[in-house]
Protein backbone atom coordinates (compact mmCIF):
# COMPACT_ATOMS: atom_id res chain seq x y z
CA UNK A 1 0.00 0.00 0.00
CA UNK A 2 1.52 3.28 -1.12
CA UNK A 3 1.58 6.12 1.44
CA UNK A 4 1.20 9.69 0.21
CA UNK A 5 2.01 12.78 2.29
CA UNK A 6 -0.24 15.58 1.05
CA UNK A 7 -0.11 19.22 2.18
CA UNK A 8 -1.61 22.56 1.26
CA UNK A 9 -4.93 23.82 -0.07
CA UNK A 10 -7.71 21.54 -1.31
CA UNK A 11 -6.55 22.00 -4.88
CA UNK A 12 -2.90 21.35 -3.98
CA UNK A 13 -3.76 18.24 -1.95
CA UNK A 14 -5.80 16.93 -4.86
CA UNK A 15 -3.05 17.58 -7.39
CA UNK A 16 -0.48 15.77 -5.23
CA UNK A 17 -2.89 12.84 -4.86
CA UNK A 18 -3.32 12.73 -8.63
CA UNK A 19 0.38 13.00 -9.45
CA UNK A 20 1.71 10.59 -6.84
CA UNK A 21 -1.20 8.14 -6.98
CA UNK A 22 -1.70 8.15 -10.73
CA UNK A 23 -1.15 4.39 -11.13
CA UNK A 24 -3.57 3.56 -8.32
CA UNK A 25 -6.19 5.91 -9.78
CA UNK A 26 -5.97 4.14 -13.13
CA UNK A 27 -6.47 0.80 -11.36
CA UNK A 28 -9.68 2.22 -9.84
CA UNK A 29 -10.86 3.48 -13.21
CA UNK A 30 -10.17 0.12 -14.83
CA UNK A 31 -11.98 -1.80 -12.07
CA UNK A 32 -15.12 0.32 -12.07
CA UNK A 33 -15.34 0.82 -15.81
CA UNK A 34 -15.31 -2.97 -16.21
CA UNK A 35 -17.74 -3.62 -13.35
CA UNK A 36 -20.30 -1.08 -14.50
CA UNK A 37 -20.20 -2.36 -18.06
CA UNK A 38 -20.26 -6.07 -17.19
CA UNK A 39 -23.01 -5.95 -14.56
CA UNK A 40 -25.10 -2.91 -15.42
CA UNK A 41 -24.44 -2.60 -19.14
CA UNK A 42 -23.37 1.05 -18.99
CA UNK A 43 -20.20 2.52 -20.45
CA UNK A 44 -17.92 4.96 -18.64
CA UNK A 45 -19.32 8.02 -20.44
CA UNK A 46 -22.77 7.13 -19.11
CA UNK A 47 -21.32 6.65 -15.62
CA UNK A 48 -19.77 10.12 -15.75
CA UNK A 49 -23.07 11.65 -16.83
CA UNK A 50 -24.87 9.95 -13.96
CA UNK A 51 -22.29 11.25 -11.50
CA UNK A 52 -22.81 14.88 -12.59
CA UNK A 53 -26.24 15.04 -10.94
CA UNK A 54 -24.44 15.29 -7.57
CA UNK A 55 -22.42 18.43 -8.37
CA UNK A 56 -24.96 20.96 -7.09
CA UNK A 57 -25.40 19.17 -3.76
CA UNK A 58 -21.61 18.86 -3.26
CA UNK A 59 -21.17 22.56 -4.05
CA UNK A 60 -23.72 23.52 -1.39
CA UNK A 61 -22.30 20.99 1.09
CA UNK A 62 -18.58 21.84 0.80
CA UNK A 63 -17.16 23.47 -2.32
CA UNK A 64 -13.60 22.50 -1.36
CA UNK A 65 -14.48 18.87 -2.17
CA UNK A 66 -15.01 19.88 -5.80
CA UNK A 67 -11.69 21.76 -5.76
CA UNK A 68 -9.86 18.72 -4.42
CA UNK A 69 -11.43 16.38 -6.99
CA UNK A 70 -10.48 18.79 -9.77
CA UNK A 71 -6.93 18.80 -8.40
CA UNK A 72 -6.84 14.99 -8.46
CA UNK A 73 -7.99 15.01 -12.08
CA UNK A 74 -5.39 17.61 -13.07
CA UNK A 75 -2.59 15.74 -11.31
CA UNK A 76 -3.53 12.40 -12.90
CA UNK A 77 -4.10 13.83 -16.38
CA UNK A 78 -7.82 13.04 -16.33
CA UNK A 79 -11.02 15.03 -16.60
CA UNK A 80 -12.98 16.12 -13.54
CA UNK A 81 -15.89 13.80 -14.34
CA UNK A 82 -13.61 10.73 -14.11
CA UNK A 83 -12.79 11.55 -10.49
CA UNK A 84 -16.34 12.61 -9.67
CA UNK A 85 -17.58 9.24 -10.96
CA UNK A 86 -15.14 7.37 -8.71
CA UNK A 87 -16.34 9.34 -5.71
CA UNK A 88 -19.99 8.65 -6.63
CA UNK A 89 -19.40 4.99 -7.47
CA UNK A 90 -21.49 3.77 -4.52
CA UNK A 91 -24.52 5.76 -5.64
CA UNK A 92 -24.23 4.14 -9.06
CA UNK A 93 -23.32 0.65 -7.82
CA UNK A 94 -25.35 0.19 -4.64
CA UNK A 95 -28.81 1.33 -5.67
CA UNK A 96 -31.43 -0.24 -7.90
CA UNK A 97 -31.78 -3.87 -8.92
CA UNK A 98 -29.97 -6.14 -6.47
CA UNK A 99 -29.28 -8.67 -9.21
CA UNK A 100 -27.26 -6.21 -11.32
CA UNK A 101 -25.81 -3.96 -8.61
CA UNK A 102 -22.85 -4.83 -6.42
CA UNK A 103 -21.46 -3.74 -3.07
CA UNK A 104 -18.36 -3.87 -0.94
CA UNK A 105 -18.73 -5.94 2.21
CA UNK A 106 -17.33 -5.14 5.61
CA UNK A 107 -17.52 -6.14 9.25
CA UNK A 108 -17.02 -3.35 11.79
CA UNK A 109 -16.60 -3.29 15.59
CA UNK A 110 -16.67 -0.42 18.06
CA UNK A 111 -16.12 -0.21 21.82
CA UNK A 112 -15.87 2.58 24.36
CA UNK A 113 -16.39 3.24 28.07
CA UNK A 114 -17.47 1.54 30.28
CA UNK A 115 -16.58 -1.63 28.36
CA UNK A 116 -13.13 -0.31 27.39
CA UNK A 117 -11.27 2.67 28.82
CA UNK A 118 -10.08 3.54 25.30
CA UNK A 119 -12.38 4.32 22.40
CA UNK A 120 -11.57 1.79 19.67
CA UNK A 121 -13.09 1.21 16.23
CA UNK A 122 -12.01 -1.33 13.64
CA UNK A 123 -13.12 -3.11 10.51
CA UNK A 124 -12.23 -5.23 7.53
CA UNK A 125 -12.92 -3.80 4.07
CA UNK A 126 -14.06 -6.54 1.69
CA UNK A 127 -14.14 -5.89 -2.02
CA UNK A 128 -12.80 -6.95 -5.42
CA UNK A 129 -9.27 -8.33 -5.16
CA UNK A 130 -8.19 -6.15 -8.09
CA UNK A 131 -8.60 -3.09 -5.88
CA UNK A 132 -5.68 -4.18 -3.72
CA UNK A 133 -3.49 -2.41 -6.26
CA UNK A 134 -5.54 0.78 -5.95
CA UNK A 135 -5.10 1.28 -2.21
CA UNK A 136 -3.52 4.47 -0.91
CA UNK A 137 -2.78 5.64 2.61
CA UNK A 138 -3.23 9.40 2.59
CA UNK A 139 -1.55 11.48 5.29
CA UNK A 140 -3.16 14.90 4.80
CA UNK A 141 -1.89 18.01 6.57
CA UNK A 142 -3.74 21.34 6.45
CA UNK A 143 -3.63 24.62 8.34
CA UNK A 144 -7.38 25.28 8.32
CA UNK A 145 -8.76 21.78 8.98
CA UNK A 146 -7.71 18.72 10.97
CA UNK A 147 -4.89 16.53 9.73
CA UNK A 148 -6.08 13.13 8.51
CA UNK A 149 -4.78 9.58 8.10
CA UNK A 150 -7.05 7.74 5.67
CA UNK A 151 -7.08 4.50 3.68
CA UNK A 152 -8.81 4.88 0.33
CA UNK A 153 -8.96 3.73 -3.27
CA UNK A 154 -6.97 5.77 -5.76
CA UNK A 155 -8.96 8.85 -6.80
CA UNK A 156 -11.53 8.66 -3.99
CA UNK A 157 -11.03 11.53 -1.55
CA UNK A 158 -13.05 10.19 1.38
CA UNK A 159 -13.07 6.79 3.04
CA UNK A 160 -11.89 5.08 6.26
CA UNK A 161 -9.59 6.75 8.78
CA UNK A 162 -9.24 9.26 11.60
CA UNK A 163 -8.05 12.77 12.28
CA UNK A 164 -5.84 14.54 14.80
CA UNK A 165 -8.89 15.47 16.90
CA UNK A 166 -9.43 11.80 17.79
CA UNK A 167 -12.41 11.51 15.47
CA UNK A 168 -12.55 8.38 13.31
CA UNK A 169 -14.93 6.86 10.79
CA UNK A 170 -15.49 3.50 9.13
CA UNK A 171 -17.84 2.36 6.38
CA UNK A 172 -20.26 -0.49 5.84
CA UNK A 173 -21.81 -0.42 2.38
CA UNK A 174 -25.59 -0.91 2.29
CA UNK A 175 -27.51 -1.84 -0.82
CA UNK A 176 -30.83 -0.04 -1.28
CA UNK A 177 -33.37 0.49 -4.01
CA UNK A 178 -33.60 4.29 -3.71
CA UNK A 179 -31.17 7.18 -3.88
CA UNK A 180 -31.20 10.92 -4.57
CA UNK A 181 -28.92 13.48 -6.22
CA UNK A 182 -27.50 14.46 -2.80
CA UNK A 183 -23.95 14.17 -1.49
CA UNK A 184 -22.20 10.85 -2.33
CA UNK A 185 -21.47 8.80 0.79
CA UNK A 186 -17.68 8.80 0.27
CA UNK A 187 -17.74 12.59 0.45
CA UNK A 188 -19.87 12.25 3.59
CA UNK A 189 -17.08 10.13 5.09
CA UNK A 190 -14.60 12.87 4.20
CA UNK A 191 -16.81 15.45 5.90
CA UNK A 192 -16.56 13.43 9.13
CA UNK A 193 -12.77 13.45 8.92
CA UNK A 194 -12.78 17.18 8.18
CA UNK A 195 -14.69 17.85 11.42
CA UNK A 196 -13.17 19.17 14.63
CA UNK A 197 -15.76 17.71 16.99
CA UNK A 198 -18.35 14.98 17.27
CA UNK A 199 -21.29 17.40 17.17
CA UNK A 200 -19.88 19.03 14.03
CA UNK A 201 -19.51 15.63 12.36
CA UNK A 202 -23.04 14.54 13.24
CA UNK A 203 -24.46 17.86 12.08
CA UNK A 204 -23.10 17.27 8.60
CA UNK A 205 -25.01 14.01 8.07
CA UNK A 206 -28.17 14.27 10.16
CA UNK A 207 -30.46 16.13 7.75
CA UNK A 208 -30.54 13.56 4.94
CA UNK A 209 -27.80 15.17 2.88
CA UNK A 210 -26.38 11.78 1.83
CA UNK A 211 -27.46 10.53 -1.59
CA UNK A 212 -27.70 6.87 -0.62
CA UNK A 213 -27.72 4.53 2.37
CA UNK A 214 -24.60 3.44 4.26
CA UNK A 215 -23.42 2.72 7.78
CA UNK A 216 -20.90 5.20 9.18
CA UNK A 217 -19.07 3.81 12.23
CA UNK A 218 -18.06 6.95 14.14
CA UNK A 219 -15.75 7.10 17.14
CA UNK A 220 -14.54 10.07 19.18
CA UNK A 221 -12.32 10.35 22.26
CA UNK A 222 -11.44 13.09 24.73
CA UNK A 223 -9.26 10.76 26.80
CA UNK A 224 -9.56 7.56 28.82
CA UNK A 225 -13.15 6.78 29.79
CA UNK A 226 -14.18 9.88 27.81
CA UNK A 227 -15.31 8.68 24.43
CA UNK A 228 -18.21 7.46 22.36
CA UNK A 229 -18.48 5.09 19.42
CA UNK A 230 -21.57 4.15 17.48
CA UNK A 231 -22.96 2.98 14.17
CA UNK A 232 -24.97 5.52 12.22
CA UNK A 233 -27.02 4.43 9.24
CA UNK A 234 -27.21 7.43 6.91
CA UNK A 235 -29.69 7.88 4.08
CA UNK A 236 -31.37 10.58 1.96
CA UNK A 237 -34.21 10.47 4.51
CA UNK A 238 -32.31 10.92 7.78
CA UNK A 239 -30.12 8.83 10.08
CA UNK A 240 -30.45 6.15 12.74
CA UNK A 241 -28.01 5.00 15.43
CA UNK A 242 -28.33 1.23 15.43
CA UNK A 243 -26.17 -0.10 18.28
CA UNK A 244 -28.41 -0.62 21.29
CA UNK A 245 -25.52 -0.74 23.78
CA UNK A 246 -23.74 2.58 24.33
CA UNK A 247 -20.45 0.78 25.06
CA UNK A 248 -20.19 -1.41 21.95
CA UNK A 249 -21.62 -2.21 18.55
CA UNK A 250 -21.12 -4.07 15.30
CA UNK A 251 -22.37 -3.70 11.75
CA UNK A 252 -22.12 -5.55 8.44
CA UNK A 253 -23.88 -4.98 5.09
CA UNK A 254 -27.62 -4.96 5.63
CA UNK A 255 -29.88 -2.18 6.87
CA UNK A 256 -30.72 -2.56 10.56
CA UNK A 257 -33.01 0.43 11.08
CA UNK A 258 -36.58 -0.53 10.16
CA UNK A 259 -37.41 3.11 9.50
CA UNK A 260 -34.56 3.57 7.02
CA UNK A 261 -35.26 0.18 5.46
CA UNK A 262 -38.86 1.22 4.81
CA UNK A 263 -37.74 4.47 3.18
CA UNK A 264 -34.89 3.25 0.96
CA UNK A 265 -35.65 -0.47 0.51
CA UNK A 266 -33.36 -3.39 1.40
CA UNK A 267 -31.43 -4.64 -1.61
CA UNK A 268 -28.95 -7.12 -0.13
CA UNK A 269 -29.96 -10.50 -1.55
CA UNK A 270 -27.08 -12.13 0.38
CA UNK A 271 -28.21 -10.80 3.76
CA UNK A 272 -28.96 -14.14 5.41
CA UNK A 273 -26.19 -16.20 3.81
CA UNK A 274 -23.41 -13.69 4.46
CA UNK A 275 -24.03 -10.33 6.12
CA UNK A 276 -26.34 -11.56 8.91
CA UNK A 277 -23.96 -14.40 9.82
CA UNK A 278 -20.97 -12.05 10.05
CA UNK A 279 -22.96 -9.62 12.20
CA UNK A 280 -24.05 -12.32 14.65
CA UNK A 281 -20.53 -13.76 14.81
CA UNK A 282 -19.14 -10.28 15.57
CA UNK A 283 -21.72 -9.84 18.34
CA UNK A 284 -20.79 -13.27 19.68
CA UNK A 285 -17.09 -12.39 19.83
CA UNK A 286 -17.80 -9.26 21.87
CA UNK A 287 -20.19 -11.12 24.17
CA UNK A 288 -17.61 -13.89 24.71
CA UNK A 289 -15.08 -11.30 25.83
CA UNK A 290 -17.63 -9.72 28.20
CA UNK A 291 -18.70 -13.08 29.65
CA UNK A 292 -15.10 -14.23 30.11
CA UNK A 293 -14.15 -10.83 31.57
CA UNK A 294 -11.41 -10.58 28.94
CA UNK A 295 -9.84 -7.14 28.67
CA UNK A 296 -10.60 -5.76 25.20
CA UNK A 297 -7.63 -3.99 23.59
CA UNK A 298 -6.24 -3.10 20.17
CA UNK A 299 -4.94 -6.67 19.90
CA UNK A 300 -8.42 -8.04 20.67
CA UNK A 301 -9.77 -6.10 17.71
CA UNK A 302 -7.02 -7.46 15.49
CA UNK A 303 -7.90 -10.99 16.57
CA UNK A 304 -11.57 -10.38 15.81
CA UNK A 305 -10.67 -9.21 12.31
CA UNK A 306 -8.68 -12.44 11.80
CA UNK A 307 -11.74 -14.59 12.54
CA UNK A 308 -12.47 -17.29 9.92
CA UNK A 309 -15.66 -18.82 11.35
CA UNK A 310 -18.01 -19.85 8.50
CA UNK A 311 -15.38 -19.26 5.81
CA UNK A 312 -15.53 -18.17 3.05
CA UNK A 313 -18.29 -15.87 4.35
CA UNK A 314 -16.32 -15.07 7.48
CA UNK A 315 -15.23 -11.81 9.09
CA UNK A 316 -11.88 -12.41 7.40
CA UNK A 317 -13.67 -12.84 4.08
CA UNK A 318 -12.56 -15.17 1.32
CA UNK A 319 -13.87 -15.33 -2.25
CA UNK A 320 -17.10 -17.34 -2.32
CA UNK A 321 -17.26 -19.08 -5.68
CA UNK A 322 -20.95 -19.91 -5.08
CA UNK A 323 -21.98 -16.26 -4.93
CA UNK A 324 -22.96 -14.32 -8.08
CA UNK A 325 -19.81 -13.14 -9.88
CA UNK A 326 -20.48 -9.47 -9.11
CA UNK A 327 -20.86 -10.28 -5.38
CA UNK A 328 -17.60 -12.24 -5.02
CA UNK A 329 -15.32 -10.34 -2.70
CA UNK A 330 -12.47 -10.80 -0.27
CA UNK A 331 -10.92 -8.85 2.58
CA UNK A 332 -8.63 -6.28 0.99
CA UNK A 333 -7.45 -4.55 4.16
CA UNK A 334 -8.12 -4.38 7.88
CA UNK A 335 -7.82 -1.37 10.16
CA UNK A 336 -8.01 -0.80 13.94
CA UNK A 337 -8.05 2.76 15.32
CA UNK A 338 -7.47 3.45 19.01
CA UNK A 339 -8.71 7.02 19.10
CA UNK A 340 -7.62 7.55 22.70
CA UNK A 341 -3.95 6.64 22.20
CA UNK A 342 -3.73 7.75 18.53
CA UNK A 343 -2.53 4.27 17.48
CA UNK A 344 -3.71 3.03 14.09
CA UNK A 345 -3.05 -0.53 12.94
CA UNK A 346 -3.38 -1.37 9.24
CA UNK A 347 -3.24 -4.79 7.59
CA UNK A 348 -2.51 -4.63 3.86
CA UNK A 349 -4.40 -7.79 2.89
CA UNK A 350 -6.26 -10.41 4.92
CA UNK A 351 -5.69 -10.14 8.69
CA UNK A 352 -5.78 -13.95 8.96
CA UNK A 353 -2.69 -14.13 6.75
CA UNK A 354 -0.93 -10.75 6.89
CA UNK A 355 0.45 -8.68 9.80
CA UNK A 356 -0.78 -5.31 11.04
CA UNK A 357 1.53 -2.28 10.86
CA UNK A 358 1.28 0.58 13.35
CA UNK A 359 0.77 4.25 12.36
CA UNK A 360 -0.39 7.49 13.98
CA UNK A 361 -2.01 10.70 12.82
CA UNK A 362 0.45 13.55 12.35
CA UNK A 363 -0.31 16.80 14.14
CA UNK A 364 1.91 18.68 11.69
CA UNK A 365 3.36 20.68 14.57
CA UNK A 366 -0.10 21.70 15.82
CA UNK A 367 -1.16 21.05 19.39
CA UNK A 368 -3.69 18.29 19.98
CA UNK A 369 -7.16 19.56 20.82
CA UNK A 370 -7.56 17.02 23.66
CA UNK A 371 -5.15 16.08 26.36
CA UNK A 372 -4.54 12.33 26.58
UniProtKB/TrEMBL annotation:
Keyword Transport applies: no
Entry keyword set: Acyltransferase, Transferase
Molecular-function GO terms, alphabetical: acyltransferase activity
Domain of life (superkingdom): Bacteria
Region (Disordered): 1-20
Keyword Transport listed: no
Every Peptidase C45 hydrolase domain range: 118-316
InterPro entries per record: C45_proenzyme-like (IPR047794), Peptidase_C45 (IPR047801), Peptidase_C45_hydrolase (IPR005079)
PANTHER family (alphabetical): BETA-ALANYL-DOPAMINE_CARCININE HYDROLASE (PTHR34180:SF1), PEPTIDASE C45 (PTHR34180)
Record-linked NCBIfam families: C45_proenzyme
Protein's name in the database: Isopenicillin-N N-acyltransferase like protein
Organism listed in the record: Alteribacillus iranensis
Amino acid sequence: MKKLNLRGSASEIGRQHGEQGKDEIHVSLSTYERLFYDYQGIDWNTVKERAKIHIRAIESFDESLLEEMQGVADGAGLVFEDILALNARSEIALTGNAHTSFSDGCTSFSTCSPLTEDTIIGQNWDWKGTQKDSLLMLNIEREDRPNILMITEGGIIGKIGCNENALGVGLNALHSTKKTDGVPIHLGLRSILDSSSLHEAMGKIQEGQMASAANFMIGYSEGKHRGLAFHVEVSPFGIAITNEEASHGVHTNHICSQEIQMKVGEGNNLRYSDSEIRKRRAEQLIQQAITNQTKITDETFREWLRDTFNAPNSINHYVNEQAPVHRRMETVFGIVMNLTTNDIYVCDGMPAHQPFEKFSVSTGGKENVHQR
